[in-house]
Amino acid sequence: MDLATDFPERFRPGTRVTWKRAGEEREIVVASARPHARRMLLRFEQVSGVDQARALCGGELFVPEAEAFRPPEGFHYAHEIRGWPCEDAAGNPLGEASELETTAAGPLLTVLAPGGKHVLVPFVEGIVVRVDRAARRIVLDPPGGLFEL
User: Of the residues 46, 67, 88, which one is the last residue of a structural domain?
Assistant: First the structure.
């Protein structure tokens, strides 16, 4: 399984997860887990044999929101901030957060600006002034011209 979590330790025996793929969905329980290179090798209680394991290929695993690890200070889940309005320090709208991804160069926030343009904003201190969970908004101080390109 390729990791799309910053908390792989969550996969321990007994953990219930939801497997999803193109309209299919089922709950499965982790029987064992161990890291291997940059992946996790998982075995599930309901899956016995290679054919049943192959049937899960192409799917993704999810945990219920109520069971998600509380993010450390300064950490934000991509799904959490998706759709939040982004504005500058003066309150002027810049667009809406559409994606937050980790890249080799660091985290990037994709902002869907008015007019449908996607703007890639480095998600770093100095440019990201504040992520306000209570107000569900992001305040940015982007470099000059970033939203005009």
Answer: 67
